[in-house]
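User: Watch each token:
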Amino acid sequence: MLERAMHMRPWDVIVVGGGCTGLATALDASARGYRTLLVERGDFTSGTSSRSTKLIHGGVRYLRSGQVELVYRGLRERHRLRGNAPHLVDSLPLIVPAYRWWERPWYAAGLKLYDALAVGRGLGRSRLLSRRACFNHVSTLQGMGLRGGVLFHDGQFDDARLGWALIRTAANLGCVALNYAEAVELVESRGSVRGVRVRDLVGGAEWVARGAVVVNATGPFADTVLRMDEPRVASAVVLARGAHIVVGRAFLPGHTAVLVPSTDDGRVLFAIPWHGHVLIGTTDVRVSEPSSEPAPSDAELDYLIDHASRYLTRPIARGDILSAWAGLRALAAVGTGQNTAALSRDHSVSVSRRGLVTVTGGKWTTCRKVAQDVVTVAAEVGNLSPAHSITARLRLHGYSTRRHVRYPWKVYGADADPIRAMEAADQRLSALMHPGLPYRLSQAAWAARSEMAVHIEDVLARRTRALFLNAKAASEAAPGVAAVMARELGRGEDWAAEQVDAFRALAKRYLPA
């Protein structure tokens, strides 16, 4: 990839940013036949796009504010994504518990509308549950005052693994994608933005990549790139931090999630089974500056613990948290002084006076449609030959309809077989990374060999989800993973030791004091 990036020229579309929107944009452009380069200064999906609530959903809570069209588009895209990547998107049952007499019929009415909007694309019909039926689905649900509930279905996925599927699919179509490659400067030609100066953050090389159009898809850092073009431009994004905690499965056994539709500050709270653990989130705190490693505050952790403990019989203590992390939502700026929970999750595409295309807003569920809109605008700005988007029915890399495949193999889809073949060739690779994690050393070798993993953080945080599931176990697994990667990448013991030290320092930030 690096060799091609430095010597292929010129490009049709250059995408800056390797989160969900940037990856989907690169895929859409490549699928239309445009010569596409994507550069990401960290690892792919290393920011907000690996820190989501892991749901592919229409946004049922937006019905409360009357955003029916936004919900309809989300449900349509959910259906398309599940069809294009069945190995990565599953149906998840969720219970909305009712503790006041009016809640059960009220929630049922809203979810029937949700069903109606998803007609022909649904994952299962919603239905009323008795008090006893609620306990049959979630045995640890708080029973005091429970009057029953409503069961509905939405989509669940693994965000970082979906990101990798987008990269590989785009690469199969000719896209050149680089992680750890920073766009340090915009390049001008005849008064228009026509490229970027790229710095390889691993090897140190710099070069100019020229193209017909540059797309700014940097999410929380959109303003940084915008101001390379126009230093005094108004902010394009409003930033909100969303925190999550992960606890053991004993707090929510089974396969059904719990949705609390209205917390003290009007947000929705989720408790979700995910990869053998329980994910609880999220918060919504406005922040002023972007960060590549945002951390949840003590107040946010207390908020999540308090609200989850109101609805689950087993109280959560700080010591029960296996991993705590946060991401920054980059919401399209539509005014000032608003509570970020009230801002629309819809997207916006803008073009500067010099032709820089910037996309803000959006989410994983709708990233395909966002990308379609972005590339259509970019093609006009770059005067590219018109071409229709084909991603609505484009199967993603690894596409597999095999059912009952056990985790962690399911998220690899068709790539699971070659990874197992690596284990057959070298029995050492069949060992678990750690007894508290579901991952094998073969996955680390595969990530280094076939998934552009550069650091052990790439393996433990994103190619697998170890850091997000159990930070202490991931830290203890680091030496074994570093040894496997060192063999694959031709690195020495000093490199492995430095990698372990750096990762353990990072992992400490995922464990609350």
Remarks:
- The longest strand covers residues 206-216.
- Residues 336-343 have pLDDT under 50 and may be disordered.
- The chain has three domains: 2-48+161-236+341-393, 91-155+239-333, 410-508.
